[in-house]
Amino acid sequence: MSVVALAVPRRLTTRPLTFGIEHERVAGFTLAWGEVDACAERLVAGSVALALLPSTCYAALAEDLRILPGIAVTMLATPQSPLAEEQVLDPLATTIDEWCARTGLPFVSWVWVGRPGAIDRVQAEALGRSLELGRAAGGQEAGLAYRLGGQELSGLAALVEEVRTLGGVRQRGLVRLLDCGDGPPALPRSARPGAVARSTDALLADAASGERLSPEDGLRLYHTAALLDLGRAADLRRQALHPGDVVTYIIDRNVNYTNLCVTACKFCNFYRPVARVAHGGAYAAKSRDGYTLSYAELARKLQETVDLGGVQVLLQGGVNPNLRLSYYEELFRWVKANFPLALHALSPEEVSFIAKLEGLSLAQVLERLVAAGLDSLPGGGAEILDDEIRDLISPLKCRTDTWLAVMREAHALGLRTTSTLVFGFGEEGRHVLAHLERLRALQDVTSGFTAFICWPFQAEGTRLKLHDDTTAHRYLRTFALARLYLDNIPNLQVSWPTMGPALGQIALRFGGNDFGSAMIEENVVSQAGAVFTLSAAGIERCIGAAGFAPRRRNMRYQFLSGAGSSAGLVSSAAGSAG
Hints:
The chain is of the alpha/beta class. The chain has 20 helices and 18 strands. The chain has two domains: about 5-165, D-Maltodextrin-Binding Protein, domain 2 (3-Layer(aba) Sandwich); about 245-260 and about 295-550, Aldolase class I (TIM Barrel, Alpha-Beta Barrel). The chain has a six-stranded mixed sheet, with helices on both faces. The protein has a four-stranded parallel sheet with strand order 13-14-15-16. A three-stranded parallel sheet has the order 17-7-18, covered by helices on one side. Helix 9 crosses helix 17 (about 470-485) and helix 12 (about 350-360) crosses helix 13.
C-alpha cells in the first residue's frame, strides 16, 4: 500500500485526528507539519494527498477539492481557551455561539481536504482509527465533536456559501465528498449484537440515549412497544438531537410542471396517461386535462411565491417522455436567471427516467442539472423501498436500488436531499424496517439526507383501494420509530398536510422537530383526499400552541435571518414529498 502524505498544522483542537499516526499505531501516512497557509499551498501544489484545514480556508480555495466524509472538528459552542483561539471564524462571526444561534447549525471548524481520488476506502478507515485512538487517549471538551454527519454537513455548506458570497463569489455551498468506495464511513456506528434479549423498556431507553437499533430490535418495537412509550423515547431523542424549544418550517411552492406520465402508479390520482403520436416520436395526452405548464404560467406562480416570502420551489411532475434533459436545463437556467428561489427539484424517478431517455449515467444527468441550477433533490417516489411492494403498487417505477443510486450520486455531487416513506399499501412491518434500514445505511456512507418525512397513502379516487391501517395511531407509531431508528438523519418533518394540524402538533412530541411547509400550491396528494391548509402564520400559531418557538428555515435547515413572525401566507392545498 502506498504511503499517503498529509499536511497538518499543529493545533490542540485537531490533535486527536492524527494521534494514532503520530504514535505509530496507524501506518501508511507521513505527516508534514506547517502553518495553515503552508498546508494549503502543499495541497494545491500536489505535494500532499490531504491537508487538514480550517473550513473557512477550504471555502476560499478555488480548486476542485473534496472533503473526507465522516470526520471533521465540529463546534456546538465556543470552547475554552486555548482551543477558542485556534478556531478561524473570520469573516463569519465573532464567536461560535454567535454562529450557532444565527444559523441553527453546528460550526464545522476543521476538515480533511483533498483532490478527487486522493485516498481509498482502506486509507479513509485508517484515518478513522487514528481519530478513535486519539479520542480514547484523552477527554473531549463539552461542545466539541469529531464527526461530519447530516447536520454538520448542512453547517459546512452554509459556511462555504457565506464565505464565498462575502468574497464576491456567487457560488452555491455544494460540498463534495471524497469518494472512498462503498462500505461503512470512516467512523461506523454498530448496533448492539442481538444475542442477549433485552426488554422493550430497555430497548426504548437505549434508543432514546442514542444507541443504534438493529433491524430485529426495530421490528420488535414496531410490533410490541406501547404507543406512548414509543413516543416518549422518540421525544427524548429529539431533545438530545435538538436541544431547546425551536421547531422549524419553510415557505415554498410545489409546482407540478406536468401531469403527463408513463409510470401509471396505481396509487396516483394526479397523472394523466399518454399515447405515442402516429408517424412521430412525440407523445400526446389521452385526456383533455393533461398539461405541461408554459413559461408564462410558471412565471406567474414563481413570482407569486417570491412576493409571498417563499425561498424555494419544489418542482416535481409526471414522468413525461416528451421532456428531454435539455428541457430541464433550459428551465432551471431560466428560473435561476429570473427568480431568487432555490430549486428543490426532480425525484429519483424523474432523474432515472431522464437518464434512460438520454442514454446517460445518473451522474452525468445530475452533473448537468447541477450546472443548470439544481440545488437539492426531494425524496419523492420512495413509497416503500422494497421491490415486493413496489411491484404491487407501481411496477413501472424505478426499482429500490435505482432510487438509492440516484440519491447516492446526488450526495456525491454535494446535493442535499430529503427521504420519505409512504405506508398503507398492505406492507408488513418487515417492509417498513427494510425501508428504514436502507435509508440509514446510505446515510452512514453519504450523510446527504437532511430530513425524513412519512405519511399514509391517500386513496380517494385512485385505482388502488385502501385495505390497510392509515390511522393516526399507526402514523405516530411509524413516525416515532423512525426517529429512534434513523439515528443519523437529523430532522423529522411532521406531515400535517395529510394528518391535520392537530396531529402535527402531537407528532412534535413523538420525535418531530420540523413543521414542514406553508406551501402555496400542491396538486398530488390533494387530489387523493388531503385537503388541510395552513398559512405561514397558522403554522407559527400551531408551533407556539404546542409549546415551541417557530423559526423559518431553508432546505438545509439553516435559520433565515429576520424570519420568525410571518405574514398571512395562504396555501391553496397541502402535501409534500420533500
